């Protein structure tokens, strides 16, 4: 084992999960909603256990556009209260996690004479709604200023544009930061622990049955109240209580492509206010690459690895190509990823109509047996969603009702120090990460990450698989799907070493199986004629 390495943390986590005869609150699901609720509960002094079926942020919470935003689009739809709340939360998150959230300027191009004043007025309203927590005032830019900020905008016919500000973040890293914050406050969390059933006292839901995926063993844990925060899978858990319950979600898929930074060389993002299907399209600089998306395609099923449809990729590249010069092509795509929106059906129409018009607000639903289901919403508002959920949980579970402290709570690692992007996400843990072996050994020439980051992820961030390491602890899979496949054998070797090596069953065959499992997943992020 490497000098100074920690012991495998999982046995202690499992023991802690099983130690309590009754938790105050059990949260099912380790995405934005579940982690936000668990942090809210733990910081109020409640005893909380979070169970995640796969890995933290494996679902939608690692597949976003990476924006901490009010949602300019929802303003255009007239949903002022949703935008105001999200802008408020944007401002809080910017203050509470400066190591993960940064201000980003967005340039909206105007190719018609009316466009700049039209969007300018809307974005002034956005400024006003943000109030004291505004990140910067929107301003009109003439044609030259637009091109100096976004040199790759198509110059032909360009009249000018508007600059406005929003926040940007690393979604999976925020999830891991919330996990660490939860643990700092005494909460217990376990990944690879899918909930397979609910425990009831009469009609009351009073706990869950879960499977430890690593041993295959089933366990039962009890709680005063259970929160179902399983994203697009909430209906599966609801059916465990009542098999006849009507589904509350109508999932829709959103796709992004990732290309090299040369397609958007400056610090500003692109916002195309109206695509052919009436949505907005973003191109945002992220970890020295560019993320372009997204789409809104209703889907009948909820896969853990949703696949981008050909027409979604074509749509993104076609739309981006109209505004970007040079236009990115299929061959330029380093990675393509898809995520599922947990959109809540309109109860009146039972979900009929397009998913683009379904509610982006979060919804809390209480079942007959007091199972609390939290879904919908967005990453930006995760804290508020957690606050609302725990307010309900305290009442329904007979817990002491306490005031929230999360509006001013600095998240784990809080730091305003400037560091290179991939170190910055660790905040004030960065120096400790850099002291681990391999801090100067890059994992792959096309990726910014070092071996030390992988060791840190196993020791302190509950990474269990090569996929956890390359997809969510680092973002290698999104920055280069092929490069990450090439890095997988080395990642597997480090993982095995950190978990105790061959003596602990992490031999060559185990490593080969890890690499193969990751390659299968990563192949879904490669475009057929891509990089
Ligand atoms: C394409 C796209 C772009 C987006 N962009 C943005 C953006 O830029 N900014 C923004 O603020 N929001 C954005 N959103 C919205 C935001 O990402 C989601 O609202 C949020 O991530 C949902 O989090 P969640 O925790 O509800 O669901 P998830 O992240 O899906 O988490 C649910 C978790 O439950 C687990 N689970 C499922 N079944 C079980 C079980 N039986 N037992 C235990 N665990 C289980 C899953 O493994 C998963 O980890 C975007 C969404 C999409 C789809």
Automatic annotation (TrEMBL):
Keywords, comma-separated and alphabetical: FAD, Flavoprotein, Glycerol metabolism, Oxidoreductase
Signal peptide: none
The keyword Glycoprotein appears for this protein: no
Database matches in InterPro entries: DAO_C, DAO_C_sf, FAD-dep_OxRdtase, FAD/NAD-bd_sf, G3P_DH_FAD-dep
Residues of the FAD dependent oxidoreductase domain: 24-347
An example Gene Ontology biological process: glycerol-3-phosphate catabolic process
Domain Alpha-glycerophosphate oxidase C-terminal positions: 393-500
GO terms, molecular function: glycerol-3-phosphate dehydrogenase (quinone) activity
Superkingdom to which the source organism belongs: Bacteria
Cofactors, names only: FAD
PANTHER family cross-referenced by the UniProt entry: ANAEROBIC GLYCEROL-3-PHOSPHATE DEHYDROGENASE SUBUNIT A (PTHR11985:SF35), GLYCEROL-3-PHOSPHATE DEHYDROGENASE (PTHR11985)
Family in the record: Belongs to the FAD-dependent glycerol-3-phosphate dehydrogenase family.
Name used for this protein in its record: Glycerol-3-phosphate dehydrogenase/oxidase
Native source species: Deinococcus wulumuqiensis
